Amino acid sequence: MSAFVTEPSRPLLGDGAAPPREETPRPAPRRPRLFALDGLRLVAALSVLSFHWTADSEVPEIWGGRVPADFMPEISRFTSYGWLGVQLFFIISGFVICMSCWGRRPGDFFVSRVVRLMPAYWAAVLFTTAVLVLVPTLGRAAARDGIDMRTLLANFTMFQGPLGTKYVDGVYWTLWMELQFYLLFAVIVRMGLSYRRVTAFCGIWLVASLLVPQAGNPLLTAFVMPLEAPYFIAGVAIYLMYRFGPNLMLWGIVGFTWLVSVTRADDLKKGFEAAAGHPLSWNVVVLVITVSYALIIAVALGYFGWARWKWLTVAGALTYPLYLIHQEAGWTMIHWLRTLGLRSSVALGVALVAALAAAWLLHRLVERPLGDLLKRRLSGSIEAMRAASGPSGRRRAAPDRSA
Fold first, then answer.
1. What would the pLDDT profile of 248-269 be if each residue is shown by its tens digit?
2. Ranges of H-type helices in 192-264
3. Residue 2 domain-assigned?
4. Is 54 inside any structural domain?
5. How far apart are CA 390 and CA 29, in angstroms?
6. Fewer CB atoms inside 10 A, N or C side of the chain?
7. Which domain, by its residues, includes 174?
8. What is the distance between the terminal CA atoms of the chain, rounded to a whole angstrom?
C-alpha cells in the first residue's frame, strides 16, 4: 500500500474541463496504527510532569521551604524546559483530531470528543479535589483555598475560565485551549472535511492569529489563541501531508507556523520563567519547538514506521489520565513521602510509579467503561435526532389549541 492516500484522477469532459468535485471526503482507508504518536504523547506528559516536579520554584512548601534548584540544580536546569511538552501536545492534537474525524459527521465528532475527554476528566476533578480537601496538611494551601461546591461543579463543565472560577488543578488550562480548537474545527467538520477546506482553515486561522491581536479585542484574541494556534495548525497541515503527501503548499504552511512559533517564543517563555525561578534561554526554547515539529513530521512521512511495540498503545492510553492527576495530587504525594523520611530522589521515583499506577487504574476502571457507556448513549441520541430531523422523521407540528 502506498504511504500516502492521493486524490483520484478526474475524467475530463469533452472540452477538457474537469467536472465539479465532491468536497465531502470519504473516510480514509484503514492504516496501521501510528504507535510513535502514542509514545510521543507519553513523552510530552512526562516532560510536563518533570517540570512541575523538579523545576517549579513556586511550590517550596512541598520541599520543606526549598525549591528544586537548591538540591537538584543539574536536573532542574534541564527540566525547566519541560513545559514545552504542552506545545508538542498541541501539534499532536492538530494531527490526531484531523485524522480521527475525517469522513465523519458533526454528531460523530461531538461524540468522539466527549467520550475522549470527559470520563477521565470528571474522575480526575473528583480525585484531585478529594486529595486537596481530605489531606490539607500535605497539599498546597493556595490550591485548596477557594475550592467549594460551586468551584467543583464549575470544573465539571471544563468551562471554568468563562464561568470565572478557579481550576481545581492548574494543568486544566490546556484543556480549555483544546476545547477552543475543537469549536473552531467543528465549523469545518460541519461543512465537510476536504483537502481544500482544511487548507483554507489553516490559512485563515493563522492569519487571524496574527491580525486579531492588533485590533485590541480581548475576546477575539482569546478565541484565536495567538500563542497556541501555530501548533494546532501545524499538526493539521502535517496530517494533510500524511494523508495526501507532502507538497510545497503544505511545507509552506508548516514552515510559516514554525516561523511564527519561534518569533513568539519570548512571549511564550515569559509565562514560565516565574515558575522556573530564573531566565530561560530563547535558543533552547526554539530548539525544543523545532524538535517537536520535526518529530511529528517524521511520523507523518513514515520515518517511525518501525516503531510497532504494543506497549506504546498502553503508553498512549496512560497519557491523558497521567497528565490530569500529576500536578496537585503529585505534589501532595511527594510531600507525604518526604515526611516519611525518604530522600528527594526516592520520593520522586515512588511518586512517579504511584502516578502511573493511578493513571492506569483511572483508564481501566473509569475511562474505558464510562467512555463506552457514553458512546452508546450519545450515539443513540444523535441517531434519534437524525431520524427525527430526516424526511421520514419530520412531523407536522400540532396546532396550539390552548389559547
1. 999 999 999 999 999 999 999 9
2. 195-215, 218-224, 229-244, 248-263
3. no
4. yes
5. 28
6. C
7. 47-382
8. 67
